[in-house]
Amino acid sequence: MALLRKFEISTVYNDIYDITDSIKETVSKSGVQEEICRLIPTRIDFHHQHDSPQDAAGHVKSALLGIERMFIIHKGKLLVGGSQGIYFLEFDGPRNREYYVKVIGDV
């Protein structure tokens, strides 16, 4: 069983966006009970032709934090603590961004 959903957000420079609910909703709709959930933000239109200092700093921050994360699904729910969440950090905006949530597992 696999489920891939695309989400779109509009960002501004140096801001943080809580995307926890969209990930939890995707996990719930997937029907997966026990597995790993991989979060992959993508930007397919990127070109290195006109990098600015702000853009370069965003690349370094992104390299340090990484561009994908895996999460555990237990009993059909995303396994995060009560005060934990999943956030999209914008280092280079404002931009219209997309992120994907893919849940893979046996139902």
TrEMBL record:
Q: Which Pfam family name is an example for this entry?
A: YjbQ
InterPro entries named among the record's database cross-references: UPF0047_YjbQ-like, YjbQ-like_sf
Gene3D superfamilies in the cross-refs: YjbQ-like
Name of the protein in its database record? Secondary thiamine-phosphate synthase enzyme
Species source reads Lactonifactor longoviformis DSM 17459
